[in-house]
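Most newcomers find our protein records easier to grasp once they have seen one. Nothing more is needed to start thinking about how sequence determines fold. Here is such a record, shown just as it appears in the course material:
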Amino acid sequence: MTQERAMASASGWGVLVGVIFWAVIMLGAFFANPVLGVVLAIFTGIPWCIVLNGFFTLQPNQSVVLLLFGKYVGTTREEGFRWANPFYTKNKISLRAHNLNGAKLKVNDQRGNPVEIAAVIVWRVSDTAQASFDVENYHEYVEVQSESALRHLASKYPYDTMDDDQELTLRGCIDEVSKDLQNELRERLHKAGVEVMEARLSHLAYAPEIAEVMLRRQQAEAIVAARRRIVDGAVGMVEMALEMLEKHNTIKLDEERKATMVSNLLVVLCGEQSVTPVVNTGTLYQ
């Protein structure tokens, strides 16, 4: 694995002054003695042109990987107008943050349900040597590995839970799932000298062919959960009513009348529609 080596470069302004001074001398020699000027131009003109090849500029958060006849020499990150050995091959690499807005992928979750999923990944190059020499094309490498990590992530979790357990799901635990995705991407992209700054899901939905069925299932689960809550509340109210009647000795009921009272209260409390009351004008037992 290649490791980045920092290498200093010279200020381009000082070298530029020397180059201009060199050109002035050659022009002065030519005007003073044309023959001498031509000789100087022949012997010094080529080196003068070679020196010009050493100039380059760097903006903030940019770097230049320097190669000498195919051998890695080092990386300079000094911004501004710079100069280095003119025989160096200079490959610029941006150190700025990149956004990868991945396309929607159709994958299967842990339970085999087809889902659509996409992610936004923020990354930047942290080691220019690894990005240049350990992978063929680090931009393409990031895209391929990000897609692979996202597919693997979707297969590890169900889209949604089927009951009230605490199982991690893609829909219910976005933060935990995104953190897992970020950790996996860091492990995969470290060998390419890439740092993953953030990774989050940007799209999550059932595939169109099962979306309607899953929607009905979710609606049914919501109805069941609501009815369970209503029944729990109704049973609690009935128990409280019976306890208060016995405690205050308001009325004494036998077991049959208690059962009738419980049945009537549950019908009133659990019914979906308003109940029409029936007034008993007779005695309690008629």
About this structure: The chain has seven helices and ten strands. The first helix runs from residue 12 to 32. The chain has three domains: 10-93, 98-206, 211-270. Residues 108 and 114 are 4 Å apart (CA to CA).
